[in-house]
UniProtKB/TrEMBL annotation, chains A, B:
The keyword Glycosyltransferase applies. Keywords: Glycosyltransferase, Transferase. This is Pyrimidine/purine nucleoside phosphorylase. Belongs to the nucleoside phosphorylase PpnP family. It is an enzyme of class 2 (transferase).
Amino acid sequence: MPTTQFDGVTVQTQANVYFEGKCISHSLTLADGTKKSVGVILPATLTFNTGAAEVMECVAGACDYLLAGSSAWRHCAAGESFAVPAHSSFQIRVSDQPYHYICHFE
Amino acid sequence: MPTTQFDGVTVQTQANVYFEGKCISHSLTLADGTKKSVGVILPATLTFNTGAAEVMECVAGACDYLLAGSSAWRHCAAGESFAVPAHSSFQIRVSDQPYHYICHFE
């Protein structure tokens, strides 16, 4: 089951808008200082670069992703996650329905 | 100054996606039970219906809005708000830059 809510968080009211709105997220800080974001990617194929390592948890919808250095696209559905190393990149492909995610920064 | 963050809230991780992604919001519940949402509207002209009365606070960007029964479009910029009665509707027009908002439910 995906994580459906976070309690006791600080949320930034201004969103992060990437790729002309194809990806929109809001930044969260948990009570213990952990940073996360919750967002949506609309149907598109996009490339993201990482600073810190991150885990992308799918909350609803689905995506295909391709990690840097890999030639194999993999599928990720609701309740599933994939990890991306620090200072790397990945492509994400969303078809049909919006992909809802939590980005967990490591 | 617009409200830049909320502390101690519960955030729903799955977003609300309206108008094929032209409007995306996340629902919040404050510690006192108050419900709000934080969202973005991309350039478009959209019509929304209200259930409860609400106040739309602009966090960044700007919009023009037209309340039901009015013939006058009005402008709302960052740090400004407008109120919409319950069981009513309004049009919102966003040009150029994304409009970031907090919807305060009354």
